[in-house]
Amino acid sequence: MQGLAQPTAESELRALAWAAVLTPACAAYARFACRRLRPGRPRLAALLPTFAVFIYLPCMFNSLHLRLLSSFFHTWLAVNKLVLLALDRGPLHPHLPLLPFLLCAGMPIKVRRLDQTKPADENSTSPPPPPVADFFRPCARSVLLLSCLAVAYPYTGWLPLYAVHYLYCAQIFLTLDLVLSSSSLVAAALLGASLERQFSTPLATASISGFWGRQWNLMAVDLLRSSAYEPVRARWGRDAGVLAAFLMSGVLHELLYWYLTLQRPNGEMLRFFVFQAVFQIAERWARATGLWRPPKAAAYLLVTGFMVVTVSEMFFGPFVRAGVDVRMTQEARAMLELVWSGRKHLLRPLGVVSG
């Protein structure tokens, strides 16, 4: 890839150090300002400098993996949460204690203190939060499967293109699930907060609306619901709200395309998400009129096939043409080799000799 330097341990550690300093500093400033300003334009004007910092932070990384995570943590989640905070909405509140506020602003978690939750009554339908063990398992599974993918990628040349892109989907899911599950464990350890799953079997789906609304990246879904879907739905109806949420997601993915390629976006990400919005609305209409009620097995086959084809052609296509897949595969293998080469330093104190 042209224009983006190769990552080194020094460059990435320096960028991580800056992110570790700037993220809590901006969050603390936002809490301080919002405690003294009324919601609306005064808060929004005061928070504008933090938006610039969070939008710039991904540019400090040369690793595409870290750029991807930084764009999700900072440009997407943190900025979105702070905009909602300025409007007195969303998961942040200026009267949250400092540590929960900093963690919620800078990490993909929602703070829900156990001592603040009401005991469930007999009429409550809210499911209990999943146990902590349910987050250790995804971490271990993701580490194992990501290692297997890194080893297997050089031998996937014989696979059909759609199969390779399905593996890319699996890699994105496993990476995000590892990061989000780890973040939830940090929240539980530091805050005593209850945990919420961020994915629900997203690699197979029987419904387009189910995939985007209840299976894939639920933290982002919640923020899109608060910042785009609900305000637009209240004024123009449900379908307009769905379109607004997908439009906002498309714009954010256009920015992600620029972060990862340093090339001018040409609207392909936006077209993909508008396409998904149209089909989600059409699916709901078809269900309501009885035109789309296939057997469950057929629905899984058809909808999963639809998602694989559209994601492969419309979403991964621009990134593959820019060489992002090759660069990320190289980074994954380099990380695996680094971990593998360091095993002897970990085993030496135990008296184990590695070959």
Low-confidence stretches: 113-126
Question: Which percent band covers the strand fraction?
Answer: under 5%
Radius of gyration: 21 Å
Give a quick account of the main beta sheet: strands, pairing sense, barrel closure: none
Described by the principal axes of the CA atoms, the overall outline is globular
| Average pLDDT score | 82
> Alpha-carbon distance between the termini?
35 Å
Helix content: 55-70%
Q: What is the total tally of β strands?
A: 0
Class per helix and strand makeup = mainly alpha
Subunit organisation of the chains = single chain
Counted by DSSP, the helix tally is 13
Instruction: Write the element-wise H/E pattern from the N-terminal end onward.
Output: HHHHHHHHHHHHH
